[in-house]
Amino acid sequence: MSALFMLAFIITLFLLLLILFFMKNSKKSLTVNEVNNNIFKHQFIEIEEDFKIGKISEQEFYIMKNELSKRVLKYSSNIKSDKKYDNKVLNRIIKIIFIPLIILLSTIFYYYNGQPELPDLPLSDRKENNVPNIFYQQALKDIDKKISNFGENLELYILKANTLTALNKYEQSITIWKYIIDSFEEELNASIYLSYGEAIIQKLFNQENKILITREAKDIFEKASKLSSIETEVGALTRFYLGLHDYQNGKTLQAQLKWEEILISAPVNAPWKEQIELQVTQISRDENNNKNKQILSMVSQLSERLYASNSQNIIQWNKLGRSLIVLEKYSQAVKAYQKAYDLDRKNIDAIKGLAESLLLNHEKDKPVQDNTIQLFENILLKDTNYPLALWVIAEHEILINNFLRAEKLLNRLLIQLSEGSEEYNLVINKLKAFDNK
User: Which of 58, 269, 329, 385 is deepest in the core (most CB within 10 A)?
Assistant: First the structure.
């Protein structure tokens, strides 16, 4: 193949030099056009001399001069036409000879140096950033060829490890990363350690479908963190994984502190900052969802047990009602607290729970129902400074125009609140409204 390529190249070069040689030689001889132009000039000169010595009259001179000029103009026009024709012929010859040679050389060069066995990559795949595995496999062959030609080269081994990861060959990728760590100790940096650690994570994710930071990965990320700054992408990702290891081992506070430090230290416009922030937010959301699921499961079990046994344990019914309020299941909370209240109408926890759940369950923008108001009145008989009861009863007294009692209740509430707080300001504004009436 190499000999054929060289032969075609030599033939093309020879033909090109041959054409240039003839073009160069043709310029050395006097052209027909130049000879005829010289003859016309000589004729003009002779006519002028005959006119000067009186051989021809002035009228004859101008007639002969005009006739000779017409001949020159006609001849020049024919010459230009012939030149255009000659140029077309030359261009046609060049196309006939060189275009097939160019195609031939391109084909030979493609099959000799290209990758004809690779498929065409559709535009849709390019837009989706989805590269077929055959391209990675071919790249892997090329990398191995270069490693065999150039010997130990860190960049080639890194490229090979990353290509194996792209092919989901995590075991082989980790083997290469280990070889890099052992063989290029003096050239190692944080980015290499980070890639090695991420390869371990990806291997476990492929096996168990969840992200796990093993002790081995943690040790690698710690080495990366020592070689990187928290303000850089590599340093931030390294510390994020270390925080994730803490989180997975129950050290939630330590993990949150690490992540908070990353987000505070990251440059404002760093593109990777947003990604880490999204990951942290998602982890927090998942944690809350898991806690809610656990609470809901426990509450459901408690509810089933109490209703199934028609329990007479008022403490358990109050516990169930409080849990349902936390889960914002107010209608179910009303039922649980009603059970507790029916068992003991004097139990303050049952009264407070039932009143609160009824208040939360009632429709907004509508007056609180009388039975709920009566429950809060009963609460004030037992706990005269219960804040929620003071507020609800004061609002009710305002609706029935009993401003004097409402003002007393609000003042009792005000002394329990921190000055400047949102609740304090709300009560102050209510009291000020009385002064305007």
Answer: 329
DSSP 249: T
The region, left, alpha or beta by phi > 0 then psi within -120 to 50, assigned to residue 367 is beta
Per-residue tokens: 43: 């004729």
- Report the alpha-carbon distance of residue 379 to residue 356 in Å, rounded: 11
Low-confidence ranges of the chain (pLDDT < 70): 1-44, 61, 65, 68-131, 435-437
Neighbours of 419 (CB within 10 A): 8
Are 139 and 109 members of one domain?
no
pLDDT score at 106: 64
User: Residue 236's closest CA among 213, 259, 253, 211?
Assistant: 259
- Token pair, residue 165, equals 């990861």
Looking at the fold, whether 91 and 159 belong to one and the same domain comes out as: no
Q: Of the residues 214, 245, 280, which one is the last residue of a structural domain?
A: 280
Is residue 224 domain-resident?
yes
Residue 98 carries which side chain, given as an amino acid letter? F
Contact (CB, 8 A) for 241 and 201:
yes
Who's near 363: CB < 8 A, 6+ residues apart? none
Q: What's the domain range around 99? A: 2-113
DSSP letters, 78-109, are: HHHHHHHHHHHHHHHHHHHHHHHHHHHHHHHH
- Count of the separate structural domains present in the chain: 2
pLDDT of residue 30: 45
Task: Copy the structure tokens of residue 225.
Answer: 């963190």
Are 413 and 380 within 8 A, CB to CB?
no
53/157 same-domain check: no
Same domain, 172 and 82: no
CA dist 30 and 300 (Å) reads 112
On whether both 61 and 163 belong to a single domain, the answer is no
Domain assignment present for 196: yes
* Residue bearing tokens 């006609």: 74
Q: Check which CATH number belongs to the domain holding 202 and give it.
A: 1.25.40.10
Domain identity same for 172 and 266: yes
Whole-model pTM: value is 0.52
What distance separates the 2 farthest-apart alpha carbons in the chain? 154
- Tokens found for residue 372: 């709920």
CB–CB of 361/334 below 8 Å? Answer: yes
pLDDT for the residue 70 = 64
Task: Give the residue carrying structure tokens 């012929």.
Answer: 89
Cβ contact 163:139 at 8 Å: yes
